[in-house]
Specification:
about 450 residues, mainly alpha, 16 helices, about 0% strand
Length: about 450
């Protein structure tokens, strides 16, 4: 299975678009479920250590999400660059780009993790962590920070595999890592038998060991099986050209991804104005949303390689077809999910709370907010498609516009006019307006690319 003699991603520029999209998306759905389970298992076992440990791990989210955002951004850049090279049948350049991308991801991850480690205490103190909590946070983060370097490399390596049209191996590797983490968590946290009792640090060690195993398997596939990454350091010229192209996409993509926690923080502060019940309902909704939009999240990873390869091959009609099929499917799917959620709203609320006022607020959330998940799907898939078309700044502008011109402001206006009902409904209206803008923006970008190619020919 080497690059010599065949293009490992050629299947994405030939054959049925619909079949290719389904074939790539199904493994990603399984992978996403296991990815969510990874975090859930950590939280579950840490919660058994007590409220203080659970609070400490909650403080780590903004910092860990910063590293995750960098990993996602670099992965988006990697996928877009490598898939376009493969679509153009530039196999050697695709291999060179894959190699450079992994070196850059490693260097950038070491730099950022080192800076966060250096300023760890001031960062968490500024966030409001007490000295007591800071001791627990430090126990976890001194292990997690070095391991996060591997996490960034894993995300980029998986993106290279997806750029080749292979989503099965990344999903399988995520499953193996999740299983290792789940087995090691109770052993290293609580220390039964010969295992050391490491407490909250044990959760970090379980995660890091799982990442290490994942990275070793990934490098085996990339370096030996697919020969997509060379163990040799590329020339300075190749390093500069491929690295510049990847960072041009990856840095704006990472910035766009950071908009999510920023907006969530503002939305939580607005919800706080209605009391603890509203905050609880919004918090429950934040946990429900990734499961309810699982298909959207999976397709946001499987659609870009399909678009990038056909973009590189000059098959713009297939780019348009892939985008339209994905949008239509997501709208129909999310409508079905919404109907199911509305029907089961009381049951969902009862799972998360026994307090009547909180249950009522959760039910209200489920009745209103998921109505916009299909629209949200249009926004997410448009942004990922624009990155695949090597238009990262447009995707970044749309992300900023969504959160800080429509989604958050309209939720605030709605809350001022109609209370909690208006808060949720305003957010849905924001998604509606932004979905229309996103749709039009992608079509304009696509028309522009088609016009440029017509002129060139």
């Amino acid at each position: 299975m080497s690059l010599q003699g065949r293009n490992p991603g050629q299947n994405l520029v030939e054959g049925s678009i619909k079949e290719a999209l389904i074939r790539m998306t199904l493994p990603m759905i399984a992978g996403m479920i296991l990815l969510f389970t990874f975090s859930l298992v950590d939280t579950l076992f840490i919660s058994l250590l007590g409220t203080e440990a659970l609070t400490a791990i909650s403080f780590t989210f903004p910092v860990t999400f910063t590293m995750l955002s960098i990993a996602i951004g670099m992965g988006i850049g990697a996928s877009a660059v490598v898939a376009r090279r493969l679509g153009s049948s530039e196999l050697e350049k695709a291999k060179q780009a894959s190699t450079v991308i992994n070196y850059i991801a490693l260097s950038l991850a070491i730099l950022v993790a080192g800076l966060l480690w250096l300023f760890m205490d001031p960062i968490f103190t500024l966030m409001g962590a007490s000295q007591q909590l800071l001791m627990l946070i430090r126990q976890y983060m001194v292990v997690w920070f070095p391991g996060s370097v591997m996490m960034v490399c894993i995300m980029c390596g998986n993106s290279v595999l997806r750029a080749c049209g292979n989503t099965r191996i990344p999903s399988l590797l995520m499953a193996i890592a999740g299983l290792i983490n789940a087995i090691l968590d109770p052993l290293l946290i609580f220390g039964p038998g010969p295992f050391p009792e490491l407490g909250i640090a044990g959760a970090a060690w379980a995660t890091v060991i799982a990442w290490l195993f994942n990275l070793c398997l990934l490098l085996y596939y990339l370096v030996i099986r697919l020969e997509m990454v060379s163990p040799q350091v590329p020339s300075q010229e190749v390093f500069a050209s491929s690295g510049r192209e990847m960072l041009r996409i990856g840095i704006p993509a990472a910035g766009a991804n950071m908009m999510t926690p920023l907006a969530a923080g503002v939305m939580t502060s607005i919800a706080a104005g209605f009391g603890d019940r509203a905050v609880a309902a919004f918090g429950v909704g934040a946990r429900i949303e990734p499961i309810a939009t699982l298909l959207v999240l999976a397709m946001s990873s499987s659609l870009p390689p399909l678009i990038s390869q056909n973009y590189g091959a000059g098959r713009m009609e297939r780019v348009e077809q892939a985008y339209r099929i994905a949008i239509r499917f997501v709208l129909v799917w999310q409508l079905g999910v919404y109907v199911l959620m509305v029907a089961s709203a009381p049951l969902i609320a009862d799972i998360f709370s026994a307090e009547l006022r909180v249950v009522e607020a959760i039910v209200l959330f489920v009745w209103i907010m998921p109505a916009g998940y299909g629209l949200q799907g249009i926004i997410i898939l448009t942004n990922s498609s624009l990155n695949a078309l090597h238009k990262p700044m447009l995707a970044l502008y749309l992300s900023i516009t969504r959160f800080f011109v429509f989604y958050v402001p309209l939720a605030w206006v709605g809350s001022e006019l109609y209370g909690l009902h208006g808060f949720f409904a305003g957010a849905v209206c924001g998604n509606l307006l932004m979905a229309v803008i996103s749709w039009r923006s992608f079509n304009r970008a696509l028309d522009g690319e088609m016009a440029l190619r017509q002129v060139a020919t």
